[in-house]
Specification:
globular; 416 residues; Arc Repressor Mutant, subunit A
């Protein structure tokens, strides 16, 4: 795998404005595919330069357990068909495409492609653009993001890197909806390019748990920088608000020793990939190839059935968002947990108006998740079920965790 090792140490380079102002609707694998392609770009390249997409190399670098020739072709077709929104210097949204020509040779499996002319100003002649126009750009090794598993980690990493070229810290807004809001920067866009921000992100606890913590952990684990952050009720202009409204990030280059430790972690994970691939090929390859289509069909059907079943359950539930987070339990058990959680909400946080019902569900999710994670992390009690242990904790609140959640939500919803 020497070629793959060399390829993952190639640099990805993008102009800062496409990182900071773009609205991406790509999947995690598609996003990594773009980075893989851009790592092939050389300084002397032009719009006519052709690039080769090596499926085996891509699979190994991204630590994908399996990806078929057809899946890669479909993925590149989807990328070529997609338009990416970017806010230009006038504040207007414009559409740009990533790929122009994609040629797939079915005989030898080669995939040849060119970048679309829309994207080339953001990835070609970057040194010259900086010298001539002051257009800054960001670079990082492909392996910085190749092993990341969380959807938002590569996006947060690119954004922080783009602001770190002359700063050790940067502050974003939180849940304001402005162009300085981190949620706006990382959310997927709708058909008109407007960010679609999940409702659950209005809760600082949920956004921290589902986005910031996984991104921080993977950035600190795999990249040459280390980051930390803190929330604040002071806005970008220094005025104190009644809720968390900004996030300040701190970014530092790792020491030489820390970088060596990071390299050791990455090398170990790729070593495990190599060993697993060899083992799987020797034991399962022939069997899997013979039954691949049937297995893939059954897996897709199973996922579709699970999604349909969940939607049906949510239609009948008094707490559909809460149900989605604890769908392993029966409808009756979910409703019991939800009602037990509501008993611990402090008076006055939410109005009795219907519009605050979603907020109650988010409160319950944050509160119950604490005890759920705690139970899952402790030794299994064979005398009772997970649900009974969880219901007992939620009902009695042994750790007084509702106090913390109430304090967080009083800042957001109290006295309304």
């Amino acid at each position: 795998m020497a070629r793959s090792n060399s390829a993952r140490n190639q640099f990805v380079a993008k102009r800062n404005d496409i990182i900071q102002q773009s609205r991406l609707s790509l999947t995690l694998t598609q996003s990594k595919a773009i980075s893989y392609i851009l790592s092939k770009v050389k300084r002397e390249d032009t719009e006519d330069t052709h690039y080769f997409f090596n499926i085996g190399e891509f699979k190994h670098i991204m630590k994908l357990k399996k990806i078929t020739y057809k899946e890669v072709g479909d993925m590149l077709q989807n990328i070529a068909d997609q338009s990416t929104y970017i806010v230009d210097k006038t504040g207007k949204l414009k559409l740009i495409r990533w790929l122009d020509i994609v040629r797939i040779e079915p005989v030898d499996g080669k995939i040849e492609l060119t970048l679309h002319k829309d994207i080339t100003p953001y990835v070609f002649n970057l040194i010259e653009q900086k010298d001539e126009n002051g257009e800054y750009y960001t670079t990082y090794k492909l392996q910085d993001i190749s092993l990341m598993k969380h959807y938002y980690s590569p996006r947060v990493y690119e954004i922080l890197k783009s602001y770190a070229y002359n700063n050790e810290q940067w502050k974003f807004e939180f849940n304001t909806g402005s162009d300085k809001d981190l949620q706006v920067l990382i959310a997927k866009p709708d058909e008109k390019g407007n960010p679609v921000i999940p409702k659950s992100w209005s809760s600082w606890a949920v956004f921290k748990r589902d986005v910031l913590e996984p991104a921080k952990d993977e950035i600190n684990k795999y990249t040459p920088i280390k980051i930390a952050y803190k929330e604040s009720k002071y806005d970008l202009y220094g005025t104190k608000q009644g809720r968390i409204c900004t996030i300040e990030f701190y970014m530092l280059e790792k020491t030489k020793g820390e970088k060596n430790q990071t390299e050791d972690i990455i090398e170990q994970e790729y070593k495990e990939v190599d060993e697993e691939e060899e083992r799987q090929m020797s034991i399962f390859d022939n069997f899997y190839n013979a039954h691949r289509e049937q297995l893939e069909k059954e897996a897709l059907e199973e996922l579709a059935e699970m999604d349909d079943e969940l939607e049906k359950r949510q239609e009948k539930s008094i707490c559909p968002v809460f149900l989605e987070n604890f769908s392993e339990f029966s409808d009756e058990e979910v409703e019991g947990l939800f009602k037990a959680a509501l008993d611990h909400i402090a008076r006055g946080i939410f109005s009795i108006k219907k519009r605050n019902w979603d907020a109650r569900e988010l409160w319950a999710i944050d509160y119950v998740t604490y005890y759920y994670d705690k139970i899952k992390a402790t030794a299994k009690d064979t005398k009772t079920t997970v649900f009974k242990r969880l219901y007992d904790c939620v009902s009695k609140d042994y750790d007084d965790y509702s106090v913390k959640v109430n304090m967080d939500y009083i800042d957001r919803y109290g006295d309304r």
